[in-house]
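Help: read this over?
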Amino acid sequence: MNSADAVDISELAIPDDLMHPGAEAFEAMVEVRNRVETEILGTPALSHSAAELLPGFRNPYKPRRLFVARSGGHTVARAILSWRTVTGSPVATVNVEVRSDARGQGIGTALLERMEALARDLNLTTVQSYVTHPALADKDRVEPLSGYGSLSASDPGVRFLTRHGYALEQIKRISFLDLPLPDRELTALLEDARAQAGSAYNVVQWHGSTPEHWVADLAVLKTRMSTEEPSAGLHTTEDPWDEQRVRRRDDDQEASGRLLMTTAIEDCRTGRLIAVTEISLPGPTGGVAAQEDTLVLPGHRGHRLGMLAKAANLRQADARAPQIYTFNAEENRPMLSINEALGYRAAGYDGAWEKML
């Protein structure tokens, strides 16, 4: 872009669908997202279509306000403010992404300041930002307050957030796994996990929407995920799920064109689900699979149920996409060990940054 071009920052209305006014602007915003993520990681693996992302932007449990910066007739940056509708939660999430050819002009700063001002207006006093970072091997490093992992001090995202008063609380490893997995290796991992789990646990699987008799159990597991997932020093509050929210999530997945593959573990002694893992498979336009939530309730850990669930889910999903990605906290050694045994390899990092307003 020409540095002399005027930059216009404006709020973007989230369209009802991609057939009505506003759809082209939304699609241009998604192109910025995909371009920035690809530049950082050197692969388009995290790219998603506007159709896949739109249902999430319309999620009533996590409202969003969306802003874009335009220059020379093109969308060159985007910013998102989101928050949860949980009573008493003081946390806002901010995401700012600027195309590399539009940086150095204050666009990112202007967008970030706009998002922080909106957070104050909503009486949200804690701002968190989750930012993709490359796996650079520079000597100068920035370590998170969690003490696990580090990022390159020269990374533009690190320099930008540090300059604006954000503290690096946690690092998540972004890992990729090529599919399909060798059948012999997957079978060996699955059989070993089954043997260690014993007869007290049963594997339950489904595609798409959650079966009605498991909706309540899944709501419990989703709620527990919000507090059991490692969060380092980040300010967190419980994010409650009920049956209505599970059904809304299922509807959004269907609307996105992606297929959710779920493997859960049933405790045969109680008939309740005590573990779950999910994979989101790409729709007709192609792409890669995304590993979503994985959780084993604390009272049932130590029986290889995490490996059992993940290996079983990969078996039913691995012929449907060429690759799958996942995010895991660097301090979450049990989950990292499972993923490493499955063959995941690190490709980048997701930094969790926080600032008190």
